[in-house]
Amino acid sequence: MKLLGVVVLLLMSWGVRAEEAIVLTISGNIELEGRSHERMDYTLSQLQALPQGEITTAHPWSNTPHTYRGLDLRALLDTLFAHAEVKALYLESLNGFSVVVDWQAVAPYQPLLAWRDNGRLMSRRDKGPLWLMLPYDRVPELQQAKFLHYMAWQLRHIKVRTEPR
Q: Percentage of the chain with pLDDT > 70?
């Protein structure tokens, strides 16, 4: 009888889709489809459904160039904050790291929230699930220390500071 109960539970669990975890929270004065929000939570699947991009770059954390795929951060912020000018991003990582990013300095380089590294989904162990990626080796200006600090990995929360247009 116990075996039959275990089999029934297994069969029932196959039919129930597991709830996907939130991997990123964006907070600030968000306006989307005419409604104000203080925060938006995203699963990886939701982020993957948004505009994407790729960057192939070498940086101090790899010996060779890697190809990163991820969310076009500029496109997302343009959507969520179309009513205001984004000034700064306060990035918080799972490992406790935090940094304030000057958005005006970073935006021209088409930053990504990378979730794939050389075709592989990035795990927490591999600096995932999200890593702010810039084309580090292609633009000499990005090789300054401040830009290296902006390339935070294990991102979990972005607080956005805006000013009215």
A: 89
What b/e string do you get for 56-93 counting C-beta neighbours within 10 Å, with b at 16 or more? Answer: ebebeeeeeebebbbbbbbebbeebbeebebebbebbb
Contact 110, 77 (CB under 8 A): no
* Predicted confidence (pLDDT) at residue 9 exceeds the cutoff of 60: no
Give the distance between the most distant pair of CA atoms in the chain: 69
pLDDT at 74 over 70: yes
Domain that residue 132 falls in = 19-164
Q: With contact defined as beta carbons under 8 Å apart, do 148 and 134 qualify? A: no
Question: Strands, E, within 8-127: which ranges?
Answer: 22-32, 35-43, 52-57, 66-72, 84-93, 98-102, 112-117, 120-121
Answer whether residue 12 is part of any domain.
no
Per the structure block, which two tokens stand in for 123? 């795990």
Instruction: List Cβ neighbours of 132 (8 Å cut-off, separation of 6 or more).
Output: 73, 91, 101, 111, 112, 113, 114, 150, 151, 152, 153, 155
Structure tokens at 70: 């991820």
Give domain status of residue 5, yes or no.
no
CB 142 within 8 A of CB 134: yes
Q: How far is CA 1 from the centre of its chain?
A: 48
- pLDDT(24) > 80: yes
CA pair distance 43, 24, nearest whole angstrom:
7
